[in-house]
């Protein structure tokens, strides 16, 4: 029989007990020599096989320090400790004794460089202070109002408050200053809801038409089919948009509408009635513009100026000497020579008209090269008087306002207005109330989101003046130059009086009309206002 011999369980247990007794005996013999005397090399037997029980030997520590080196190391550490104590005492003595000398040295430096030190000494910049609110014409995407005291209104509305707010906005009635007796609700909630309304066209719930970003992804699954692929749907939208645009421009010329915005995927246009902003004629502001876009406007015989463009006096003198055959003195002549040569070359090779229009659209989207000096403010265009009619006709007929790619392909530009017009949709802003914790203080907050027009900001500011508050505004970057423009030739008192008389039926109350007709710009050097603080009856502006 091959393999191990079978053992019974009793034999296995007996063998384990014997091993256990042998192990215990070994431990007992190993403990006695270590306690009695130290083991040396001479005491270890050479023949270990003769001994029945092996003797335990204490192994030498390999990390044990040599006795010869120990005194020397102790002496070195004592010397280092003495040096450290003496050095620390000298250091503390130097820090404590010559305090007056350090202060005198700093005083001498401040006397030598007062300008540089004064810049760093200012902890907070001085904010412009005004007694009245100034209208900011840039479009806002978000506004947050915070106050230490509770607000007098709430975003949760009753049925009567919501109905009165809608009725007052649609009929352009201010229930607080109405001369006739009305049954409208005059509570602060109704006034708050009235200030958070605007008119918009087009309005497609599954697409974000403000801001118009053609690169934004489509989040809803039902919007996978682009409107631009269906010529029938796109044609109906464009036809209704043309009718809405004509309606708005007619209201503007009749002074029944104070202003409205046209937002495309490339540029924004602000149309303002005569008397608004201190300008005596109907005018329009356009930004951002590129060199190709300005060239197209010249071809359409639309005269414009660039009031915010920064040019050197030497270049201006050279441009004035070469102004024959040009319509804009602010654009350098050297910029257009290369474009003229390109156009002549395109005409010589005989390109199709559709291909040429695509090339012009690509030239408008050049971004860095198109805008003057790469900034929005320098490329702002001002069109006044009869030239505004030419701009209206060009926007009505051009295809550059329609995007050919992305989810917004085939959708006409977005129109925003405080006054009703044909095919317009009444849109409310999203309001939300919350509590904030800032610097250990509890603050009451109201946040408003959406395309916030100037009339909404003015209404909310007047409603919030019951207590001190702070407003933080998020500005649409492409509309920032609107706030920096100011007509230098306008007289504030004359323009305000003219605006009150000619725009009495534009839908704004008397107090708001005074603000919109004034030519006073936003008192910030960095552009539009990002923060406004109302404290002790005064407004503090921060860029």
From TrEMBL:
Stored InterPro entries: Donson (IPR024861)
Bias type Acidic residues, positions: 319-343
Positions of region (Disordered): 26-51, 305-343
Subcellular location field: Nucleus
Bias type Polar residues, positions: 32-51
GO terms for biological process, alphabetical: nuclear DNA replication
One GO location term (cellular component): nucleus
Alphabetically ordered keywords of this record: Developmental protein, Nucleus
Family: Belongs to the DONSON family.
Name of this protein: EOG090X09DI
Organism in which the protein naturally occurs: Eubosmina coregoni
